[in-house]
Design a protein that fits this description.
This protein is mostly helical. It has helices spanning 4-14, 34-46, 52-66, 71-76, 93-109, 113-123, 126-137, 144-149, 160-170, 194-202, 213-226, 234-244. The longest helix has 17 residues, at 93-109.
Length: 246
């Protein structure tokens, strides 16, 4: 098994500002306003699957050309015709329209995503609360793309993109923004994807074969043995190492 010293060296190597330019977290760093940043991050996390080059290109188009670099204004004044035929892989225009309409309602009736996630945290089921909010308000014509972007935690999946989004919002560092303080870094779960799963098994940190939420819990608990207060900092080490050593 890899040692704490070896893993910490990988964190030191990869957790730096150079990581931002090729990662979807770049979209959060474009905005100084807190709500703009949290909205940009949430939307970016929904599309963060498949080819990085492709989804970053799609997000650039969405934020620059469609949202005019004003995420909050875009959501608060959202009208379906604004996005035209915008789509990405499984996500079709109707799926995005429904998500943006739900976000519009959320920001017109509350303090937005921070309040929703905070409420879920207080209920002891943060993923379920957030997902249930979206599912209860989804348009009837949404398709597979809607449920792929906002997966059901009851199905036992890794919830990788939502774990990643929380890392962005909660941790403080040269990469993560750390603008939410109602969750401690020690309470976060590792964002588990194919790269992290493969590398963590090679390193002897994960025994479970499936990349599901049980694996997320197992790996997070193992990383807590190295750093109880901030186990998900090792996401940088395993993801970047997995990509670079592929």
């Amino acid at each position: 098994m890899i040692t704490k010293t070896e893993l910490d060296k990988l964190v030191d190597k990869y957790e730096n500002k150079d990581f931002i330019k090729d990662d979807p977290i770049q979209f959060i760093h474009r905005y100084k306003n807190k709500k703009d940043a949290e909205l940009a991050g949430f939307i970016a996390s929904l599309l963060a699957y498949g080819s990085r080059k492709q989804f970053i290109k799609k997000l650039d188009n969405l934020f620059i050309n469609i949202a005019q670099n004003e995420p909050v204004n875009f959501i608060e004044n959202f009208q379906p015709e604004i996005i035209g035929d915008f789509n990405y892989r499984f996500g079709k225009p109707n799926d995005f329209i429904s998500i943006f309409k739900i976000l519009k309602e959320l920001y017109s009736t509350s303090n937005g995503l921070e309040e929703l996630f905070n409420y879920g945290k207080n209920q002891g089921k943060i993923f379920e609360t957030v997902v249930d909010y979206f599912y209860a308000r989804a348009d009837e014509n949404v398709g597979h793309g809607f449920y792929h972007m906002i997966p059901n935690p009851h199905n036992g999946g890794a919830m990788k993109r939502m774990c990643m989004y929380l890392r962005w919002m909660v941790r403080k560092g040269p990469v993560d923004l750390g603008i939410w303080d109602f969750i401690k870094s020690s309470e976060l779960y590792i964002p588990l994807d194919v790269h992290v799963g493969r590398v963590s098994r090679q390193m002897g940190l994960l025994t479970r074969n499936a990349n599901d939420f049980k694996a997320v819990v197992e790996l997070t608990n193992k990383l807590k043995e190295f750093c109880p207060e901030d186990p998900v900092k090792y996401d940088f080490a395993m993801f970047a190492y997995g990509v670079n050593e592929k």
